[in-house]
Amino acid sequence: RNFYYITILRDPVSRYLSEWRHVQRGATWKASLHVCDGRSPTTEELPSCYTGDDWSGCSLQEFMDCPYNLANNRQVRMLSDLSLVGCYNLSVMPEEQRNKVLLDSAKENLKRMAFFGLTEFQRKTQYLFEKTFNMNFISPFTQYNSTRASSVEIDEQTQERIEALNFLDMELYDYAKDLFLQRYQYMRQKEHQEARRKRQEQRKILRAKQAHLREQGENSSSTDYIGNVERW
């Protein structure tokens, strides 16, 4: 079997707000496995942002203030090889070096994926998926920009704070958008070239048929003339 890794990326600010709203309604990641290099992180390596069963009802300010919040730069962390930085042990290397290794790893893994899409480009995402895997969806994707995150009104200062908390995701997303549009343009050019090649083939076949019909017509005329001469 051939296995293909795919993923969908989202604008970091919208994704962060969406996760906050999700957590605010009582969602937790307690069932998620954070196993890295064969073991789970200790409570010292991965402290909890809240006490009790969940973090329901937390304000956006509380959500942003927790230094251990795994919502921060989640897309980079999910796409990178954490074993390169000692998993969740932050004392293995300096923070600046750790961030660079994580970001480089996430970019490389994204680049090597057979397909990835962006939620802000639903139609282009569908097109790339269909062309990559030679499959067609039953109905076209619809671009929905109205989400729970879009209903959250934040001021410019909060926007900048969220971007700062997710600075690795911001850089990854810029890279992903550029790579995504490159792949899209490549597929479009390839499609146009294939369509042009088919048109050329069709014209070639049509010209051959027309030439064959003319030749048949000329032979038929000659045969009729010779036959009439013999009868005369």
Could you describe the 3D structure shown?
Its EC number is 2.8.2.-. The longest helix is centred in the C-terminal third of the chain and has 65 residues. This protein has a two-stranded parallel ribbon. The chain has seven helices and two strands, in the order E-H-H-H-H-E-H-H-H. It is 56% helix and 3% strand. The chain is mainly alpha-helical. It has one domain.
Q: Which geometry do the CA atoms define?
A: elongated
Please report the total strand number as a whole number.
Answer: 2
How big a fraction of the residues is strand? Answer: under 5%
Q: Please identify the structural class as seen in this structure.
A: mainly alpha
User: Which radius of gyration do the C-alpha atoms yield?
Assistant: 30 Å
The N- to C-terminal Cα distance equals: 77 Å
**Domain module tally:** 1
Biggest sheet strand line-up: 1-2
Task: Indicate the percent of residues in helices.
Answer: 55-70%
Count helical runs: 7
Q: What is the mean pLDDT?
A: 91
* Biggest sheet character: 2 strands, parallel
Series of H and E elements = EHHHHEHHH
Low-confidence parts, pLDDT < 50 over ≥5 residues?
A: none
Descriptive labels:
single chain, 232 residues, mainly alpha, two-stranded parallel ribbon, 7 helices, 2 strands, 56% helix, elongated, membrane, EC 2.8.2.-, P-loop_NTPase, transmembrane, transferase
